[in-house]
Design goal:
The chain is α/β, with parallel strands linked by helices and about 300 residues long. It has 2 domains: about 1-185, Alpha-Beta Complex (inorganic pyrophosphatase (n-terminal core)), CATH 3.90.1640.10; about 195-300, Roll (Diaminopimelate Epimerase, Chain A, domain 1), CATH 3.10.310. The chain is built from 9 helices and 11 strands. It has helices at about 10-25, 40-50, 115-125, 130-145, 155-170, 175-185, 195-200, 230-240, 290-300, and strands spanning about 1-5, 30-35, 55-60, 65-70, 85-90, 105-110, 200-205, 210-220, 245-255, 260-265, 280. The strands form 2 sheets. A 6-stranded parallel β-sheet has the order 3-2-1-4-5-6. Helix 1 (about 10-25) runs parallel beside helix 3 (about 115-125), helix 1 packs antiparallel against helix 4 and helix 7 crosses helix 8 (about 230-240). It is globular, with a radius of gyration of 19 Å. The relative contact order is 0.11.
């Protein structure tokens, strides 16, 4: 049995890709099961309801298991005992992380906007049928990760995949589907500061230390105006409890591509020069992968 697992604090692409990659492996005649490392968010729940697919079961231990990784290649984003697993495959659209393997493996890493775009092309390359539920999962993940094509991570391959998947998923009004998806993506009502930070938090090794960078995608920055102090307090708590060099959080207005960066920890002073009255604003910044994290690496270096 192959366990297909996305990253910690799973976003929609992580969950959808685990489910789709599992179907790809089954189409090859292999036994596979999709698992998740955390609770699904509201957007992902919306997507699963649209696709009429059950969420993967929770799993935080893969020692001694055969695994496929989807949507990451950093050890810090995998199960804590990932180094004790047998990694057979990787499908990802991020930079190459620090995962290493003992045996040769199948690896598909493309510079596209979404892991599901790669999986869509693998289905086509291998002539496997794409069912309506799988098409719905893939098109939703692509539109989520590219923020309805607005993200600088979006490529022609993503757009081409969406065009074909829309037909397979039976989506007649793509604009209406994107709008409903983005409404679900930016719904934060009733969530605590800790839940918001945890919503899409990724760990990165950097200069022999660990830091985390989260992102909250919003319809307007005013949605979190009253929570700034609580969010910063949670970032500091994580630094203190986990020994992090920095904990940062991107508050991103997806309608204007404007991001406010919150940050705490030992390395915070390195960002002070980019702040004005204690507020660090990043214009034309929508993507953590292609904009936020590369910028941070440059400043921290």
């Amino acid at each position: 049995m192959i366990l297909v697992v996305g990253h910690k604090n799973p976003d929609s692409d992580s969950i959808c890709s685990a489910l789709v990659a599992t179907e790809l492996l089954k189409a090859r005649g292999l036994e596979a099961k999709a698992v998740r490392q955390g609770d699904i968010n509201r957007e992902t729940q919306f997507i699963l309801e649209q696709a009429q697919v059950e969420q993967p079961e929770f799993c935080n231990s893969v020692a001694g298991q055969d695994v496929w990784l989807v949507d990451y290649t950093d050890l810090a984003q995998g199960p804590d005992d990932l180094e004790q697993a047998n990694i057979l495959g990787i499908v990802d659209h991020h930079r190459l992380g620090d995962v290493t393997t003992v045996n040769p493996l199948e690896a598909w890493i493309w510079p596209v906007g979404c892991t599901s775009t790669i999986l869509f092309n693998l289905f086509k390359m291998e002539n496997h049928e794409i069912t309506k539920p799988m098409a719905t999962l893939m098109i939703s993940a692509i539109l989520s990760d590219t923020v309805g094509f607005a993200s600088p991570t979006c490529t022609d391959k993503d757009k081409a995949a969406v065009a074909e998947l829309a037909v397979l998923a039976g989506i007649d009004d793509l604009d209406a589907f994107i709008k409903a998806l983005l409404i679900a993506k930016t719904d934060i009502e009733g969530l605590s500061a800790a839940q918001l930070v945890e919503k899409d938090l990724k760990a990165y090794p950097f200069n022999d230390r660990q830091l985390v960078v989260g992102q909250i995608e919003l319809a307007t920055l005013e949605q979190v105006d009253s929570m700034i102090d609580a969010l910063e307090a949670d970032l500091q708590r994580r630094c203190d409890e986990e020994g992090l060099a920095m904990a940062a959080l991107m508050l991103t207005d997806i309608t204007t591509s404007t991001t406010r960066l919150l940050f705490k920890g030992e390395w915070s002073a390195k960002l002070d020069a980019h702040s004005e009255a204690g507020v660090l604003m990043m214009e034309n910044t929508l993507s953590r992968k292609k904009q936020g994290w590369p910028w941070l690496q440059g400043v921290l270096a």
